[in-house]
Amino acid sequence: MSTLEQQKQQQRALIVGPDTLQEPFPIFVEGQVVKGFGRGGKQLGIPTANLPSSIVDQNLDAVSIGVYYGWATVEGDDTVRPMVMSLGWNPYFKNEKKSAEVHIIHDYPCDFYGKLLKVAILSYVRPERDYQSLDDLVQDIKWDIKVAIESLKRPAYDQVKHVEFFSSSI
Fold first, then answer.
1. What range does the domain containing 31 cover?
2. CATH number at residue 8
3. By CB atoms within 10 Å of each CB, which of 29, 45, 110, 155 scores lowest?
4. Residues labelled catalytic
5. Does the pLDDT of residue 126 top 60, yes or no?
6. Which residue, 2, 98, 96, 85, is CA-closest to 40?
7. pTM over 0.85
């Protein structure tokens, strides 16, 4: 990691969001995992599960673009796990359509295209950014993951993983 990147991360908080959930959170969405751009796991080493564009357009249209954290579960794995989600245009890759890319913080042995993904979005981490290099992007995502893990330890956030949304029909 470059000295500049270390300085930037030292300026970012490790815990973000208020101690209790604030409107509009939590935001619950679910949808079948769709094939994305193929960059998360292959190019970045951080696999993502993409929500369908219809979910993004209908359920997340009023949500600001940026990075969020919360909880997620995927059909076939009944464990509710921490997640980070990028919602936006991914300017480094110059996307032409808005996407919601969820990284569940767990090493899965295979992909889960077509499986039902349930997500509880609990708080905002940071705005979407453009990057000078792929390494800078990866380092920021790794910091986002640390932020999610630490931020979710607070009681108001931890209890959301036990709501009925996650236990019903998955």
1. 3-167
2. 2.40.30.30
3. 110
4. 101
5. yes
6. 85
7. yes
